[in-house]
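re: ur question from earlier - yeah i can do the single chain one, its not a big deal. heres the input i used so u can compare w yours
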Amino acid sequence: MRGTSLQRTMPRIVFFTLFSIAITVFELWMEIETYSLTVAPFALIGVALSIFLG
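and the output i got, formated as tokens:
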């Protein structure tokens, strides 16, 4: 087992980063605002993850 796992994961990271940017640009271009997010759901998920993962 030589090397790093970065060679396998980097294409996926780049793909999903570009995909997320494309979705965000499309959403801003089409002026779609059907929802609003607050910090609360992310805080609850963070607390749940910290409890379950130790």
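The first helix runs from residue 6 to 30. not sure if urs matches, ping me
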